[in-house]
Amino acid sequence: MTAVGIERVEAVDDERLTDYVGLTDVALRSRREPELGLYLAESEKVIRRALGVGHRPRSLVLTDRWLEPLAPLVERILAAGAPVFVGPPALLESITGFNVHRGAIAAMHRPALAEPAEVVREARRVVVLEDVVDHTNVGAAFRSVAGLGADAVLVTPRCADPLYRRAVRVSMGTVFQVPWTRIEDWPRSVGVLRNAGFTVAALTLAADAMPLDRLADDPPERLALVFGTEGDGLAAATIAAADLTVRIPMRGGVDSLNVAAATAVAAWALRLPS
What we know:
By secondary structure, the protein is an alpha/beta fold. It is about 35% helix and about 20% strand.
């Protein structure tokens, strides 16, 4: 396949691929991507989901063997006015720092975030992720929200970036279909949710917290579920600011679930009729 806009990569220091350099350095990528207004989408399915919601590509990188199989995607990127870079797997791995084994990775323009009040305006079920720092957990939580029926996600200032490459990949691109934004001045900004008519429920291990199944028996019309960081859980100030506390009853001497698993369980238990 040859077309205008398809460009060959032959050197590890190719300046055209600056967006993709050093992808394994989490701290560096976390700083660079928001500054440059970009994020990275890996694999054909994820890239297609990003394009499907109107996100604009900056460029596409793929290995030689995927140029023909991914021809429709390549044509779509070129039609959007972005270049497509092609090279051998070993060279691309030396540039990105990992094996581009899913065939393709795209640099995308990062969309502007909406105000929290706008994101939750039409929602009835909202998930809040407080200081969840693991990108895998963030991505898995978004996938659960998308698949199990919550309407929106809010992430606190110290929460990992949902548009970081690993989070996007683990979510299978569902971070693009779930409305989300950052909510600042947390937990004082619990008032944003309360003013919008939400009951705010903090997920905690406290023995006096309401069992999840009891809440599911008669849930509020509009409900925001707040999940805490790995290990420490929710901050005391967040629990104090919430309208009620909720726990997932556990057995077998296990005290809690991983935060992504807890998100899935709660989203399922409190899902609205489809």
